[in-house]
Structure formats: structure tokens, C-alpha cells
Design brief:
- There is one protein chain.
- α1 packs parallel to α19, α4 runs antiparallel to α5 and α15 packs across α16.
- The chain has two domains: about 240 residues, 3-Layer(bba) Sandwich (FAD/NAD(P)-binding domain); about 210 residues, Alpha-Beta Complex (Flavocytochrome C3, Chain A, domain 1).
- It is of the alpha+beta class.
- It binds flavin-adenine dinucleotide (FAD).
- Flavin-adenine dinucleotide (FAD) binds next to α1, α2, β7, α9 and α19.
- Keywords: Flavoprotein, Oxidoreductase.
- GO terms for molecular function: steroid dehydrogenase activity, acting on the CH-CH group of donors.
Amino acid sequence: MDADVIVVGAGLAGLVAAHELTSRGRRVALVDQENAANLGGQAFWSFGGLFLVDSPEQRRLGIKDSLDLAWNDWQGSARFDRVEDEDSWAVRWARAYVEFAAGEKRSWLRGHGIELLPTVGWAERGDLRADGHGNSVPRFHIAWGTGTGVVEPFVRHARQAARDGLLTFHHRHRVDELVVADGAARGVRGTVLAADDAPRGVASSRERLGDFELTAQAVVVTTGGIGADHDIVRRYWPARLGTPPAEMVTGVPAYVDGRMLDISAEAGVRLANRDRMWHYTEGLQNWDPVWPGHGIRILPGPSSIWLDALGRRLPDPCLPGYDTLSTLKYLRTTEDIAGYDHSWFVLTRRIVEKEFALSGSEQNPDITAKDRKAVLRDRLLGKGAPAPVQAFLDKGADFVTAGTLEGLVEKMNGLTGEPLLDAAGVRRQIEARDLQMANPYSKDAQVQGIRNARRYIGDRLGRVAAPHRILDPAAGPLIGVRLRVLTRKTLGGIQTDLDSRALGSDGTPIDGLYAAGEVAGFGGGGVHGYNALEGTFLGGCLFSGRAAGRAAARQTA
Ligand SMILES: Cc1cc2nc3c(=O)[nH]c(=O)nc-3n(C[C@H](O)[C@H](O)[C@H](O)COP(=O)(O)OP(=O)(O)OC[C@H]3O[C@@H](n4cnc5c(N)ncnc54)[C@H](O)[C@@H]3O)c2cc1C
């Protein structure tokens, strides 16, 4: 045998599984189609947002959270409706994961040297119903070092294990087949790809050098989701979300290619919830792209006006930062706008400075570098937009700025090449919204939401602009931002039990086969159900990768 256990995929889930294995003395072959520069996979690029419940950081900010509240939110978001079948393990994973987030998660992270910022963000504010989708309270904790800080300890462990002779890296090895014999996983076969020294995240060559085969007592599949392959995204795009856009931007590197899902199915593995996906509606074209079609997601505060392609304000709960999939559904199923691939934010200079954040480690260099002084200086005390946001304002293809609303609408129409927006209609809606700012209460759900958010100190200090009229010249100039759909996460995948054992088509575990991370729907074949509460993906990789590593170590004892 070449190893005790083969781990396919050197992203966060694979690295965590490998660490659990090597720290128990197991010999691991870590196989990845990319080169050594890409160790850590998507997690390296991620913002490092982590879902925690009732943490000391929340308590210090006066947030009263609890396992009950978080579980209520999770169920309202997940809306598990296949509990006899595709959701049967997902429901159990969900409960276990929320308990982990409310319990051991924080100390386990700290044990690995992962520290959290003192502020807590409020992502997915929800669909305005107590038992519906969304976070009732802020829960988005950001790791110092962003995603690079989350994955770094596990990269370090893997390198150390390699020096100790317990782990062998097989870079540029692409798995094309899982070897399952007599109902048991015993290895992998695949293609050795030509050496390629492309920098991290840049699409690499697929030139074949030859074939390979590795054997072991167990195989752990941690190969990520489908987000880079728009054909697969379109194939499984659910009818409930209307038609997929003709053009989308891509929120993940090219290696998030989804191939291993079909390869696993061919080996008899059961796939669940392939129609569940998590794509964002606030995507921008990156002015400085790393991977093909590289898009960046705006993490919006609640104040921008959101207009459809024809210039009409979106209805609630389609508000910035509230309900990702309701917004996607609205944009893709409303007859007269579904033919367009874009929508718009209209906002002021004051809003962009306080409320625009961009997802990704490279878009948050101060947090990624763990530069505490720079975070305080630029984010809390600073004037002007953060430098990465300013770079998009200056160089991004999707931004226009003007001193008057009529001038702005003209430029917005110029960007799409069609006079789809009528300045008078846009003005009417913005003036109506602005009239709602005169009192500390309002009948407008978005205005209510802005005031509600500012009752939370974290939002007031760092995230939500003081309420003001969009057309107040002192808050300007006005800014228009063209938004596209950005592909990102795969919510379904390989169905697994609570030990991350992959299930076969008959619903029983396949001996020696495990799956974790995004390829396993972050646990169970779809721990999120239909909707995510955010910051739950990295945590899902940690939790399911840990379970896989521990169980595979027990099996190979
Ligand atoms: C910009 C960005 C921001 C994000 N922000 C957050 C956040 O703030 N919070 C959060 O919770 N989540 C976030 N995420 C999501 C999160 O980072 C990912 O869901 C998670 O890292 C996936 O990890 P993984 O180990 O499952 O898969 P991946 O990181 O995709 O790793 C899979 C690995 O498997 C390899 N592979 C695939 N197929 C094969 C094959 N056939 N043979 C060999 N190797 C193969 C790939 O090359 C890759 O290295 C973000 C993601 C991105 C891209």
C-alpha cells in the first residue's frame, strides 16, 4: 500500500482531515491536481468569516445569542424538506454543527492559533420573518488573517508531517477514478499533469504526462464544489430559481471544477441535493483578475438602493445583505427582467465609505496581514473608502459616479449600452425613500432596517452609514454599481453520515470511503438545506474534515 489513507484535495477540508490522521500516526498521501503554490484551496482566498453562536465576542458587544435562537434560524433557513431521503443526514449534521458553533468550535480554533476580530458582522439579515431565513443577531466572526489565517495552521501541520515522513504530497495528480472493490474503497487512479509553476489561483495547464494509481486502506474525498464550471452550474440550476443568467462572474478558482462528483457517483456513491447552490447577486468583475472570469462579491451594508435592470426598486426581503436566494429568485423569475443579467446599487459616497466591504483575503490586506493598527486606523477611524474599494471605484468596470441623479442614470445607461433606465422613474423612487428619512421611524422596510441595524453597536461604529437622504448633495457624489450573479458555493454533494463516511446508493456506508468539505455539501450532503447563514462554509470544512480524519484514523488503527 502507498499510504494508510489517501486524501484527495488539499483545500481546508483535506488539510484538516490529513492533520487528524497524521497526528494519530497514520501515513497519508495528499493528492491534488494543482501545484504546491495552491495548498489550502479556496480557503486561502476566503474572507475568513466564521459562524459562532453565543461567543465572548458577541457578548462583549451586547448580543444575546443562544443555541435555541441559532437552531431556530438554521431551520428557518435550511427548510429541510427531504428528511426521509436526501436530507436524512443533513438534518443531523445541521444540529451537530450548530452545537459545535455554540460550543467547542471557538476553543478548538484557538487551540490551532486562530484568533478572531473583536467585531462581529451581521450577514444574511433575513427575510423579515421570525421563523424564516436569516440571522436574528450578528454571528459573522472574522479570523485574524482572513481565510489565510484559518488555513495556515493546517498547511503548516501538513508540511511538518511531510518532513516527519508521515505525509506525501502528490501535486499535479488529478484523480479520475475511485477504486472500489468488493464494496470497499482501496485507492485512486488518475492523470499526472505536466508541471506548471502558475502562481496561486491562476488556471493551470491540463496537459497529460501519464497515469498513476495509489492504494490505501481508506480514501477521503475533499475536492470542493462546482462553482468554476458554469455548465455544471446551469445543468443543476433549479427551476425554482428561474433561468440561469447567460453570463455570470466566477467567484472561485478554476480548480473548483466539480468533476469529482460524477466520478464519485460512477463509483457507486450517493449524491444528494445537487439542485441546491449558493450564488451571490452582488458580483463585480475584478479589475485585476487572477482566475478566469474572476468576480468579487460586495458584502453590502443595508443602505444602498437596489434597482432591477429596468430601474425599479426591488421589493423586500430583496434588500442589500438580507436574503441572497430570495433576491436571486426575484431577479431570475420576474418575467420582464429575467432576460437581463444585471441589477444596480445606487448609493452615495458616504454609503460606499462606510458600508462597502469586498469578500476575499486579497481584498482585505490589513486583516490578512493581521495588522491591527491598520484595521483600527482605516476601518474605524479612517476617512474615505478602504483602499481596495477605492481601487474598484477608480478602475472597476461596473462603477459610475456623477454629481446629479440624471447624470448618473445617463452613465448607467451608457454602461449597458441601452437606455433601460428612466431618470424620472428612478428619481421618483429615490425621493419617496428619502422622504422616509425625516423621522426616527418609517413605513419603509429598508429604512426601518437601517435604523434597526444602527441599534447594534458593531453596525453603528463600523458598518452602517448614518441615515441620510440619497439625494443629499453633502453625501455625494452619487454612485451606480452594476451587479452580476457570482457563482460560489455548492450546497449539495456526497451524502455522508456523522463520521463523514460516504454512503452508497443503498444508503449504507461504503467501507473505507469518506467525504468532507464542499464536495459533501459541508457535511451530510447538504448541511445548509436551501439557504446559508454565512460563515458556515469554512466551519463546515473544519467540522466535517475533522470527523473524516478521526473516523479514518479509527478505521486504519
Ligand atoms: C473569495 C472567497 C471568499 C470566501 N469567504 C468565505 C467566508 O468568509 N466564510 C466561509 O465560511 N466560507 C467562505 N468561502 C467558501 C470557502 O472558502 C470554501 O467553501 C471552502 O474553502 C472549500 O474548501 P474545500 O476544502 O471543501 O474545497 P477546496 O478549497 O475547493 O479544495 C479542493 C481541492 O481539491 C482539488 N481537486 C479537485 N478535484 C480534484 C481531482 N479530481 N483530483 C485531485 N485534486 C482535485 C482542488 O484542486 C482543490 O485544491 C469563500 C470562498 C471564496 C472563493
